[in-house]
Amino acid sequence: MLAAGAAIATVGALAGCGGDDQASDGQVELTLWARSNSVPDDVQQLLDEQFPDYEITFQDIPDIEDKLRAALRSKSGLPDVVVMGGSLPSFFSVSDQFLDLADEAAASDAVDWTLDLGLTPDGKQLTLPTDIGPWGFFYRADALEALGYPTEPEAVAAEIDSWEAYRELAEATAATGQYVCDHAGQVYQARLAQQGYAYFEQQDGEAVNAVDSPISHDAFVESAALAQDGLCTNTEPYTPEWNAAMTQEDIVAFVGPAWEDGLLQSAGEQQSGAWRVTTVPGGPAATGGSYVAALAASDHPDEARELAAFIGGAEFQKAGYLDKGLFPASTGVHADPEVATPQDFYGGQDTLGVLAQTAAEAPLVYQGPNSGTVAAQFFVALNDLASSDEDPAEVYESLLAATAEL
Fold first, then answer.
1. Nearest to residue 243, comparing CAs of 223, 276, 224, 270?
2. How many CB atoms lie within 10 A of CB 153?
3. Reduced to 3 states, what is the DSSP secondary structure of residue 346?
4. Whole-model pTM?
5. Is residue 77 within 8 Å of 355, Cβ to Cβ?
6. pLDDT tens, position by position, 279-292
7. Long-range contacts, 342-349 (Cβ 8 Å, 24+)
8. Number of H helices, E strands in the chain
9. Between the CA of residue 130 and those of 40, 54, 71, what are the distances in Å?
């Protein structure tokens, strides 16, 4: 990833809120911040075609959440519209610096819970979803067949319908020198999402610490056991080690969000046709992905809302899915016959259909402002436990103490 000092790639003249945002010919100027990997490849062309009367400048910002927070604190250098990820509740305390997208949300065809993620406790619609992360169990049909398991997605989901059944499969696979678990943290995250849990509960509009929960305890201890018992490769997605484990066919299945499809197809290119995807053991799970917001500092709030609505709409999300596998929040895209098609990499399976059903059935995961901070500590602990003989239950207790005041 590029260093922050060289992070900005622009098309056209740079313009931000509060700057000279009216072109000499009277054309409205808007600035859009986003990571290049969270928008379609031809984002500038899409925007130019959709808004011929506006001059829209796209800026590629890899460290977008940090840069946005800094601009919000200084109340200067802000874009008109931003596509961001991370923990949305961390921006709720400065919701007055964002435009309310309630009307745009009312017209949206997004999966309901994805809109709820951007709703502040006082009812302001801060964001619209642009892509989301329904989780799936990605597996190689030939590997499961060799172990005597079924190979069709529905049959696999019925056979591996619990985390106990998943562990049995992990043990059988590890005995052959291959693995159906890449990293225990992936399993842990999926188990929490299935329960709509992210360390905090909302009570009277406030985030209340709920870190000490049987949901987290059981998921943490049992996920750590997978790693300590040698049932995972202990490689994190988006690392060279993960890519190598996939290329060398050490990983023959894993639990992960939809956006890892692109990663899988790149690292597992030579295994095209063997892969399938089905429901995660234990039931549907999904997490948020990226969100679009419009800034209140914009000199053109109506046009900023219009741009945000387009980015949060079906056409833009369809392009993102076809270009980069960004899973759409739009139910209209889920039903689009140009998109919901058999995938050669997955042996002719329509993977969009499986994951869209998961997205529709998954529970809302409430995120508190400190959910990301707590999650990071638990993930680091799971990573450390993979090469340690410490008791996961004792580590869990230490994590409770470390996060008790959050």
1. 270
2. 23
3. helix
4. 0.90
5. no
6. 999 999 999 999 99
7. 344/272, 344/273, 345/265, 345/272, 345/273, 345/275, 346/273, 346/275, 346/276, 346/277, 347/141, 347/273, 347/274, 347/275, 347/276, 349/153, 349/276, 349/277
8. 17, 10
9. 11, 21, 22
